[in-house]
Design a protein that fits this description.
Porin; about 30% helix
Amino acid sequence: MFRKIITSFLILLTSINLYSQEVDSTDSEDEFFKEKPKRHWWKNWDDDWTMWEVKGVPFIEVNYGLGSLDQKNMNYDFAKVGLAELKLGYSSRKNFFEEKVIDFQNKYFFISRNGSDLTSKISKVEELRSSMWQFGFSKRKGYGYKFNNFYLLPYNSSGIVWSGLDMKNYPPSIWPAVYPPLEGQIKAESDIRFLERINQTIKFGTTSESGINFDFASSVSFNVAYETTVIFPSYLVWKHIGSFIIESVGAGFLNNFIDEIANSSPISLPFVNFLLKGAYQYAFYTLKKDKMNWPFNSEAPLTLENFKFGLTFSF
């Protein structure tokens, strides 16, 4: 299992920068349209190997959110969870089109806790309460607008995550001794078997996020985001690699289409890039809710969705 996790870690680490694009910030508007060659994602392959190179300004980010755990085949519902999160990383920006549109990216380590005790919502008696620690690495990237000292930065991110689930209660395990077993007993026992496989163990997964950062000052900004996480009950290395390659190829074609938009209408790029990539990420997430290694035959994973907001402090 450890070898499989390391294999997937290396593959994702070198490939998560698939969407990275660069443009010379010294280009004038005429040069942008007349002289700039078309950009393609595969030409940046060499940059993928240095994606975790430390550069840019350091930042600290704190987030709070509300979320929900789910597993398609479970019969009992999880109680809603609250989120507390810390991110430590580096941020870089550069002009993309004149000084109106900028290209930015953040690389960071994160640690978070999702727990039923972190939300004010009172859980129902039959709901399953939980606590889960997570840590991992991620990269977010996008194009934003610059208005004097204010920046509007829509972004998409993707990364890898390790999760440790701690269940606080289980479905009922004591039932009347009747034959055949009651339908409720069969459903409860099925849920218990799944939870026992993942409870109090470290599980590998993937995470993606779409959000908007509102930078009102050079050192403090406010952000709001929606995050989805897929947690693998078991790790199937070759199926995961195959699924990742398929997702990456599709992302490459999408990125090439976005490049064409950038070449013809750079002012529209920030939100077109944000909406198209966000929709693509969420579409793949919904497919993985049924099969964790879509399109290959695999079980339904544990999933986590969070709506969160927070503050970023840059130094």
